[in-house]
Structure formats: C-alpha cells, structure tokens
Design brief:
Elements lengths: L2 H9 L15 E5 L2 H11 L3 E5 L14 H9 L2 E4 L9 H8 L6 E3 L2 E3 L4 E3 L34 H18 L4 H25 L7 E4 L5 H7 L2 E5 L10 H13 L4 E4 L11 H5 L2 E4 L9 H15 L11
Parallel strand pairs: 1-2, 1-3, 3-6, 7-8, 7-9, 9-10
Antiparallel strand pairs: 4-5
Length: 318
C-alpha cells in the first residue's frame, strides 16, 4: 500500500456519525462499476451525479483501495455495488475505514449493505456456483457467496434496474415519476435488444466454449452455451502445461470453437491451446466500460457470434 494512503488512513477519521441533511435536488452516488454507473445515470437522469470508484473496465481482483476512493465514499450520499464479493479486493476495507453505518460495513471478503448502499446482487435471485466449502486450495479468487459476475446475463441486469429504480425513489421520492419514466424507456430498449441477441445466438445454443477465468457462467446460462472448462486450473491461478494439455483434449472432444478471455489476461498464457484445437480467441472485458452497459453487451454477443460465424439477424439490428 502506498505510503500516502497509509498516512491518510492513520491521520483521517471518517467514522464520526454526522446527521445527514434532507436530500438535495441532486444526490451523489458512488458506484463500483461503469455498468452500474450507466444504469444509475440513465434512470436517475438530472437528479443524480454518479461518482465512479473504479474508472474503466478492469480486473476487479486487482483493484486496490486508494485514498481517492475513501474521500469519494466519505462525501457521497449513497453507494451502489455489484455484491457477492465482486469488490472484495477493495470495498470491504474502504467501508471499514469510512465507518458510515448508512453505507454498511466490510466483513472479510464481503460488503454488508446499509440503508444508503444498493447491493445489486440482492435482486438477481440465487447466485451460481456457490462453493460447498471454503478452501484456499480451491484457488485465490474464490467467492464465498457464489459467482459474482452476474452482469454478463442481461436478464439479471433488467432485474437489478428495477431495484435501482426503487432505490432512487427512496432516495428522492419527489422525483419518483421521473425515475419510473426513465426506467421504462431503458427497460423497453433492453428487452428489445435481449430478444435480438437471443435470436442472434440461437444457432449457438448448446455449443461449447472455454473461458480463461470463470467469469462467463451467467452469460452462458443466458444464451444456452455450455462451459467446458477454464484456462485457469483454479480461479486466479496461472495454467500449467499439464492442465493445458488436458483442456485441449476436452476441447477437441467437444468441438470447442471459442476461447473467451478478458483483455487483462495475457494471451501468452494460452500456450498452443488455440492452434492445437482450432478455437478462436475472443478477447472482451467481462464488465462494461465507458460505452454503457447495453453497448458493451452487444459487443460481447457480436464477438462470440463472429467467432462462431453466425451473422446478425436483420430484424432488430442494433
């Protein structure tokens, strides 16, 4: 941890409870991903100001707590996070330090929400891949509450958008009509695009793919793809030659044509996996960047469909 951050943590105390005034015309909401930021801005409109804690599409496991994040949290009216330990690398520590009951607290790898903390995963239903037991031997990036990459399923983001709408109504009930109107417009567009993407990937249903990290389970579930393994032998661990050889056999057996991986992972770690199996490497982030959630999801669908040689349907074209 940088020295300046240590000094700030030692010298600055955010834990004093301060009486919050009546909500202003514009509430400032700190948000942990740009995908959530996009939804908050779209539904909140002119009544919200989004404060991104993490700029850009980055590996959430590598984000470290910074003094600037601490200051943003201390000044924000509210907080929106992914949940399920997605922000385990930085948010629990920040919440512990900021000490605001309305934002909740950090507890190990998991953030506990408060009255002004919107935890998106509370609205997705049962998480995928909840571990039966917690064991560091299972990998360094294991999430105790289940797979936290729910955002790769657009159906779940629609559910989260409903939750965000209602959260904003609680924050500023005087603007409820605006929030419902903005949400309705976004949801209509999302529904139309999901129908288009589903039609686009229908020929890929039941086809097998391999991913670098287990961050695409919800995407596969959403569009009927089958995951046949990961390049990582265990979450957060680099692949070994033995593992890649075994994986190549599985890929050949199941005719895997796509290796889906985020740009923050090195393609060099794949070794000869692509050439041995004939699978195409598709590099796309598992979290949206500045383009917005729906644009990002369209890019993901387009990239996978392109690798599988599936043309985009003309009806409903983006």
């Amino acid at each position: 941890m940088p020295l300046f951050f240590l000094m700030l943590c030692i010298s600055t105390d955010f834990s004093t409870e301060v009486e919050k005034p009546v909500r202003p015309q514009v509430v400032e909401i700190a948000v942990t991903t740009l995908g959530l930021s996009d939804i908050v801005e779209t539904i909140g409109g002119e009544h919200v100001k989004v404060i991104p804690l993490v700029p850009g599409a980055v590996d959430p496991h590598k984000v470290t707590p910074r003094a600037s994040m601490l200051l943003k949290l201390s000044r924000a009216d509210a907080l929106a996070s992914m949940g399920l330990g997605y922000e385990h690398a930085y948010l629990p520590a920040l919440l512990e330090k900021v000490g605001r009951k309305d934002l909740g607290r950090g507890d190990g790898d998991v953030s506990q929400g408060g009255a002004n903390h919107f935890v998106a995963s509370d609205f997705i239903g049962v998480a995928l891949e909840i571990p039966v037991k917690l064991d560091r031997g299972a990998g360094v990036d294991v999430h105790p509450l289940g797979n936290s990459h729910w955002n790769t399923n657009p159906h779940l983001m629609r559910k989260v958008a409903v939750g965000l709408r209602d959260f904003l109504c609680l924050q500023q009930p005087q603007f409820k009509e605006d929030f419902f109107k903005n949400w309705e417009a976004w949801d209509k567009k999302a529904g139309e695009l999901i129908a288009h993407w589903t039609k686009w990937l229908t020929p890929a249903k039941a086809q097998s793919i391999v991913t670098y990290h287990r961050s695409w389970s919800y995407f596969a579930q959403s569009f009927g793809l089958v995951l046949r393994g990961e390049v990582e032998p265990k979450p957060g661990m680099p692949p070994t030659t033995r593992h890649l050889i075994a994986l190549s056999k599985t890929m050949t057996e199941h005719k895997v044509r796509v290796i889906l991986m985020e740009p923050w992972y090195s393609e060099g770690k794949l070794g000869n996996l692509s050439s041995m199996t004939g699978a195409k490497v598709v590099k796309v982030a598992s979290v949206s960047g500045n383009s917005g959630y729906l644009d990002w999801m369209h890019t993901v669908v387009s990239s996978v469909a392109g690798a599988l040689d599936i043309p985009e349907p003309m009806s409903g074209k983006f």
